[in-house]
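We emphasize that the prediction below concerns an isolated chain of 605 residues; any contacts that depend on oligomerization or on bound cofactors are therefore not represented. The input was used exactly as deposited, without trimming of termini.
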Amino acid sequence: MAGFIEYINSLPSLLTQLSSTSKLRVTIGNESCDLDSIVCALSYAHYWAVTGGNDWISLPLLSCRRDEFVLRTEAVEVFSQVGVQSDCLIFADDLPLDKLKSTECLEVTLVDHNHSSSRFPSNSVVQVIDHHELSPSTCVGCEGVRVTVEWVGSCATLTAAQLLSNPQSYSISPTVATLLLSAILLDTGDLLLEGRVTDSDKEVAGQLLESMPEGFDSHAHFKTLFKARFDNSTLTSMQVLGRDFKQTRVSDKYSIGFSSVTDSLVEFVSRDGFKEDITAFYQQQSLDVLILLGIYAPSGDHDNKRRHIAVYQSDGELPESIVSMLEASEQLQCVRVEGVGFEGVLLEQRNVKMSRKHILPLVAQFVADVERGHSPGATPAVPLEPVVTVVTAQGEVPIPEYSTHEEAEEVRAHRLVSVGGAEHVIDMTLVEPYRNIIQHAGYVGEERLAVMVVSSCHLPPRTLHNYKQVAQELFYYVMSVLDRIIVDQYMIVYLHSGAPPNSRPSLQLLRRFYELVDRRFRKQLTALYIVHPTFLVKSILTLARPFISSKFWRKVHFVPTLSELPAQVAIDDGLIPTAVKNADSAITRHRPPAVKYSPSETKGN
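Result of the prediction step, given as a token string:
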């Protein structure tokens, strides 16, 4: 069998040989068609071609349209390095559905996903190689399906391991090694992303490096691919607008589009032909409003990220109303940028922590209020984890949690946070049952202080077999929420009651978490209101005096009952769990309202 490049070059002719009597093996990646999915499909299809016998035709199928491939700029970059011609590849629109379903002898291998598809008969799946959780339509467990599903940083790790395990029949060439290693490096942040990279990733990457030419610098290679992932210079304005595009409908009347751009919008809207391209894109998508969200790092300084928001000025009053809302938002802190020659309004977004996942539901809620004839009034608070419907070729589905630029730092079911100068990747699958422990209650006072509500009734029980791990991940989750919401000063309302007795964390664990809290969060905290303080809480705080600063101690205030809380800070009743309300009723029945107590009043006692 020919080498890898020769095999890729032969794919168009192999495609023409297909008939209803062909014995066909197809290796299919997932629908996102990212680099990991692409290289796994190509390399494993070549493996089948080499080891599967001459009476079989082995084809890799990339699950995107041919005209969409150019948007995978990291794949374009690595292909140019190794000499893969994208014109020879087989895309979703090259292999008709009827050809697959009419083939009498069809075997399908799924890489980087595990769910069946209408593109092929479900009983044709013979193998699954994946590193994701099992989907509801998984092929895993079906009779006769060989399964390799393991939690690793990249599916390329599992694919490479299988190829490396059979050196007598298949020898990995430097080209295949480069492709697989590229995916592993990108998916694991150069093998440095804690919580994402595994020992298996490192071991397989080391084995692939042995196949690389002498002097190959994996770190420099990663930097090149990482830069290519966000490089828009080779794309037209139309392609950039559609590269990371989400569309949402509001009240079945308004269609609003959001294009995320990893570039300065001041420079992007100044491109030659931009006016014609954005007009054509707006009309092609049948939009009522088009909003551009730009993020970039001047001079490559990723500690100094900037954001822009641009609202395309089409006919009608709705875009103008949206601009007014954005400018009035205390959370976004937008300032209008003048003199850019854009047919619309361009805003600099000073609060760079607010991403599309926050802005999309903010705009959608505002438009819904306008449509219902309600005066929106104050800018609505941004939900911490909005769920928004988007329109895709497959119908209406929930919007993906992460946009293109965020994929480099976070992965689905994981979240990256920096605490104490160290990065930590949160396993959100552990946090999910307890994430209501912290909620954003809006802003109060002339200073617009953010109010966060923490409810102990959402703490995990200590009886969990992995309690320490869950508690740690929950702590990091709380830190990530604060990091995304807190811009300046804030206060916390801690609802102590309603929690099962076996969910109280130990004093040692609390001390450890306190020491990990970033100094800016301690400094920016103006007040901590503890509702329903018990004797145990007061005792713990007294014992904690030696390692709690006096400044922090003065910020702590006890509030005996919910009826006394509004005198300090008013929060929406819906944010108070039923368990807390029930506990409050029991407290107020058995004792008269207590006078507000502050730890600072006992100083020196």
